[in-house]
Structure to design on (471 residues):
RNA sequence: GGUGGUAUAGCCAAGUGGUAAGGCAGUGGUCUGCAAAACCGUGAUCGCCGGUUCGACUCCGGUUACCACCUCCA
């Protein structure tokens, strides 16, 4: 039975989708004004793994995500880079696609840009005005937060305290316009010329911070969805405001389960653009070629817990992933080389069955990837034990390999095969060493092994002959 | 100040009212020409104080430290 932790109720709840077998899921995407950093990637990675697991579990998942391609940040950065807002957004949207593709994150079923749903946004805001939950002031439109009786539940904040906090930071102009400091903008008037603005019943302007998500969900998934995801920092105000807008608009429960991921920390501090302690995926992958290791690091920690990012944790992830890959390659190689009886091994099949069940139990518990990983390591040990046996059964060997591939693919690791190859010189050294070993010239063979090691190639001797691995 | 979270072996990190998964490192062994890899074995009483209980790391109260949200932020 699948259970998920719902931020709305702060408890783990049994998961029941609105439509059996079908899941409607929305995850907040990036504002495309620069390269994504590891924190953004963590969110995308975590929800990709959740989506992959739900799919593995047999659900049909409709996954919608947005690109925010408008707003002050986009305008500012466009001016800095000498591009139009649309060009800038296009540039970083493509960068997002490239970075996430390297991390093996499956693109959402539907991906929409805020600028593509402008008509729907205006209609949505109009409806909120007609319902009396919004008001216009000099080209701005605000939502009457206090009128929505469940306002703030998701973020577990007290309304009056929120009001005090809000009042303290409002600028005088904004304070004058709002009926209540906690009201939030649905539409912001834009009076400058030459910057992104759309025509509306309230004059030229742009949508407020939160409306695009409400609109896209309504447009692509309908008034009620099963899962809504994003970073925990979005619980307030972003998701809080989404609930108010959407439930006022539809009169229905907006989201069944709110899922929020934790942060990537550096030196026990949140990685963020404002703190300036961020590492972009773009730069990290350009200097560190193994994107799979990065993905593995981002996925193996439970999605609600913080990830400590450092060179050490990255190395640790590399070591763990290597152990998994080695087991896979070891058995795969033996199966490929030897002629083996195509039959099954009942005892091993039984263990494999248990492992698969354990994996599902782990992941059914609010997507507990930490425990899922422990089960994967059990499978690794089983494979290593099996690969040592004299009488391998081909079918069972394939079942083990398929299982390992399937389970790791849920973690975003799609290919356990070795992609690297040796260059001509390295191959010659390796061949020469094989020859030396044949002649039992161990002095020469050890020297050649050292030479290869100096080039970053680790050589091991196995029953099947030499085996190599890039360090 | 309010709210949410975290504190478990050298490090990363699961977990349950009944004497603590897994990975890394270390260490002993098997295997190996040597090595590596792999396999087998090996270590903690769970921030602190108090309470409930036959029994708590797991429940309750308090306390300390750290993080996050309350402003755009995954």
């Amino acid at each position: 039975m699948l259970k998920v932790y719902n931020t709305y109720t702060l408890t783990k709840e049994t998961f029941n989708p609105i439509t059996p077998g079908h899941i409607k899921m929305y995850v907040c995407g990036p504002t495309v004004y620069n390269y994504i950093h590891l924190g953004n990637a963590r969110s995308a990675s975590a929800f990709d793994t959740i989506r992959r697991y739900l799919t593995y579990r047999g659900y049909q998942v409709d996954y919608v995500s947005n690109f925010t391609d408008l707003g002050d940040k986009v305008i500012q950065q466009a001016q800095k880079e000498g591009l139009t807002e649309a060009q800038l957004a296009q540039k970083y949207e493509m960068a997002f696609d490239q970075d996430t593709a390297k991390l093996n994150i499956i693109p959402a079923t539907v991906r929409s840009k805020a600028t593509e749903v402008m008509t729907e946004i205006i209609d949505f805001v109009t409806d909120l005005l007609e319902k009396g939950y919004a008001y216009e002031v000099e080209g701005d439109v605000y939502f009457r937060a206090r009128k929505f009786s469940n306002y703030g539940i998701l973020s577990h904040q007290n309304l009056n305290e929120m009001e005090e906090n809000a009042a303290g930071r409002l600028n005088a102009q904004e304070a004058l316009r709002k009926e209540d400091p906690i009201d939030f903008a649905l539409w912001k008037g834009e009076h400058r010329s030459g910057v992104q603005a759309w025509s509306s019943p309230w004059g030229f302007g742009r949508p407020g911070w939160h409306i695009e998500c409400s609109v896209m969900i309504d447009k692509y998934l309908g008034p009620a969805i099963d899962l809504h995801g994003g970073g925990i920092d979005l619980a307030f105000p972003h998701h809080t405001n989404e609930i108010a807008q959407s439930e006022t608009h539809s009169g229905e429960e907006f989201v069944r389960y709110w899922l929020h991921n934790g942060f990537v920390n550096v030196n026990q501090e949140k990685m963020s653009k404002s703190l300036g302690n961020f590492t972009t995926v773009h730069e990290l992958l350009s200097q560190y070629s193994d994107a799979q290791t990065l993905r593995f690091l981002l996925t193996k920690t439970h999605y609600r817990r913080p990830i400590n990012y450092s060179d050490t944790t990255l190395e640790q992830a590399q070591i763990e992933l290597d152990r998994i890959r080695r087991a896979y390659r070891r058995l795969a190689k033996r199966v490929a080389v030897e002629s083996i009886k195509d039959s099954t091994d009942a005892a091993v099949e039984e263990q494999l069955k248990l492992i698969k069940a354990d994996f599902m139990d782990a992941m059914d518990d609010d997507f507990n990837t930490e425990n899922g990983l422990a089960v994967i390591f059990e499978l690794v040990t089983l494979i290593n034990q099996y690969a040592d046996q004299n009488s391998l059964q081909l079918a069972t060997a394939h079942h083990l390999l398929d299982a390992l591939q399937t389970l790791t693919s849920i973690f975003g690791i799609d290919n356990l095969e070795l992609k690297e190859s040796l260059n001509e010189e390295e191959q010659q050294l390796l061949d020469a060493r094989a020859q030396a070993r044949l002649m039992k010239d161990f002095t020469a063979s050890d020297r050649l092994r050292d030479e290869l090691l100096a080039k970053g190639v680790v050589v091991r001797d196995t029953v099947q002959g030499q085996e190599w691995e890039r360090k």
Observations:
- The CA atoms of residues 423 and 429 of chain A lie 10 Å apart.
- Chain A has a mean pLDDT of 93.
- Residues 424-470 of chain A form one domain.
- Chain A has three domains: 3-286, 311-410, 424-470.
